[in-house]
Design goal:
The chain is mainly alpha-helical. The protein has helices spanning 2-27, 37-40, 70-76, 88-97, 103-115, 121-128, 136-146, 152-159, 167-193, 207-215, 220-232, 241-251, 256-267, 275-289, 297-309, 327-339, 344-361, 374-383, 392-414, 426-439, and strands at residues 55-58, 62-65, 68-69. A three-stranded antiparallel sheet has the order 1-2-3. The chain is globular, with a radius of gyration of 22 Å. 44% of the residues are buried. Bound molecules: carboxymethyldethia coenzyme *A. Residues 240, 271-273, 275, 308, 313-320, 360, 365-368, 372-374 line the site of carboxymethyldethia coenzyme *A.
Length: 440
């Protein structure tokens, strides 16, 4: 299959790259906007500064993968034989090629990833050398870097590959890395929380079901949850920290292992992916504080106000781009309402959703009071007994690989250049402002 997918990718990407090159040659002077002094101080929000083909985020509507919304993909992407949730293999195919895969295409990717999934022995040893209390995201990042010894791209570059061919070894590295991530993540999970009692992979399963199996969860529902989870966390256009870090590091022609490890280090920040562990920590603290049970709306409001008064953020709420409820939150809520309508933690999540937007919405500086993807994900996992919440961001990371590595391969095929934005000192900014005020 990898040849089939690789051939299709090559067929699609080269005419696209040529078209874009011509477009810029002819119309490169067209202005896309202006940069204000405030934007320079606001983390470059709203500045368009890079090409990302895999997905695009609309502030009101949420994410679209290659033009398709999450509800649309529910209908279009192939499912497991006895399942209802989309298979993440399909969203990878879509992000890489722009085409909707058939059930057969997706099955071949599952088989291909299974064949590529063996980790070099030294990766386990690198992880084992770390203290057992090392945060799972640190273990994950180190494990990814340790696999770099197998980089096809690094090997080919050293031999002197023609730049027109970069995409080919980058495709191989990306496929190998994606194939191995569940094994690495499951190893870290079993080592950290289950006395290193490891579970071998099972042949013939899809990527998500095998991952759930290696974590120690074999039920149909957990496999379905994993398929949903790994699909919806896959990508969120190019400027978020994990995607941008991967893209930036890759732009120096660092290979997929260096680049994705950088992305994972960014995902480990509490304002980004780590928010999924912080949400559960916050909810469990709230429950403990109130002596257990389902808190009332008034109690939740009090707890939110206390969090804000202590100068902390309410995790799982707000977003740099979104201005409405994240459709990834809604997709998870729909799953929960179907499979676990009476679950305690899910009911708290829904009650928090009733209360928090009203409070955050009344604070002028907060631009988005609505929940993001991280507000719901942990509750679903806990329902099935995956309660070790400092592992949750690793699951996010396994999924995020699909988008950022598809884009990394696309970037090398399009010949995107090294990224090198300009910067300015505060003094320089002051002078520019003064000069404009004097001129006006
Ligand atoms: N709770 C309290 N304060 C919040 C807040 C929240 N949930 N969301 C934003 N604010 C505050 C910001 O901290 C900022 O305060 P200061 O000016 O004092 O620094 C102010 O409101 C303005 O922020 P903003 O422009 O609305 O949002 P940003 O683009 O700066 O930040 C985000 C976006 C996600 C980092 C922020 O909303 C946040 O910290 N949320 C909680 C953490 C979280 O859920 N992160 C996960 C995001 C999704 C993901 O990447 O996985």
């Amino acid at each position: 299959m990898s040849n089939q997918l690789k051939n299709l990718f090559s067929e699609v990407i080269h005419p696209h790259a040529a078209e874009v090159k011509n477009l810029i040659a002819e119309h490169g002077n067209v202005k896309l906007g202006e940069i204000t002094a405030a934007q320079v101080f606001s983390g470059m929000k709203g500045m368009v500064g890079m090409i990302t083909e895999t997905s695009k985020l609309d502030p009101e509507e949420g994410i679209r993968f290659r033009g398709y919304s999450i509800p649309e993909l529910y209908n279009l992407l192939p499912k497991a034989e006895n399942g209802n949730e989309p298979l993440p293999e399909g969203i990878f195919y879509l992000m890489l090629t722009g085409r909707i895969p058939s059930a057969e295409d997706v099955k071949s990717i599952s088989t291909d990833w299974e064949n590529r999934s063996v980790l070099p022995e030294h990766v386990y040893k690198a992880i084992d050398a770390l203290p057992i209390h090392t945060h799972p995201m640190t273990q994950f990042s180190i494990g990814i870097l340790a696999m770099r010894t197998d980089s096809v791209f690094a090997r080919e570059y050293e031999k002197g590959i023609n730049k027109k061919e970069y995409w080919n070894p980058m495709f191989e590295d990306s496929m190998n890395l994606i194939a191995r991530l569940p094994r690495l993540a499951a190893y870290i999970y079993r080592r950290t929380y289950h006395n290193n009692n490891q579970i071998e992979p099972k042949a013939g399963l899809d990527w998500s079901a095998n991952f759930a199996h290696m974590l120690g969860y074999d039920s149909h529902e957990v496999a379905e949850l994993m398929r949903l989870y790994l699909t919806i966390h896959a990508d969120h256009e190019g400027g978020n920290v994990s995607a941008h870090a991967t893209h930036l590091v890759g732009s120096a022609l660092s290979d997929a292992f260096y680049s994705f490890s950088a992305g994972i280090n960014g995902l480990a920040g509490p304002l980004h992916g780590l928010a999924n562990q912080e949400v559960i920590r916050w909810i469990l603290d709230l429950q403990k504080d109130l002596g257990g049970g389902l808190p009332t709306s008034e109690q939740i409001a009090q707890y939110v106000n206390r969090t804000l008064a202590e100068g902390k953020v309410v995790p799982g709420y707000g977003h740099a781009v979104l201005r409405k409820t994240d459709p990834r939150f809604t997709a998870q809520m729909d799953f929960a309402k179907k499979y676990m309508p009476d679950d305690d933690i899910c009911n708290i999540v829904w009650r928090v959703y009733d209360v928090v937007p009203g409070i955050l919405g009344s604070i002028k500086k907060i631009q988005n009071p609505w929940p993001n993807v991280d507000a719901h994900s942990g509750a679903l996992l806990i329902h099935y007994g995956i309660k070790e919440y400092d592992f949750f961001t690793v699951l996010f990371g396994v999924s995020r690989a699909l988008g950022v590595l598809a884009q990394l391969t696309i970037s090398r095929a399009m010949g995107l250049p090294i990224e090198r934005p300009g910067s300015i000192t505060s003094e320089g900014l002051k002078k520019r402002i003064q000069a404009q005020l004097t001129n006006s």
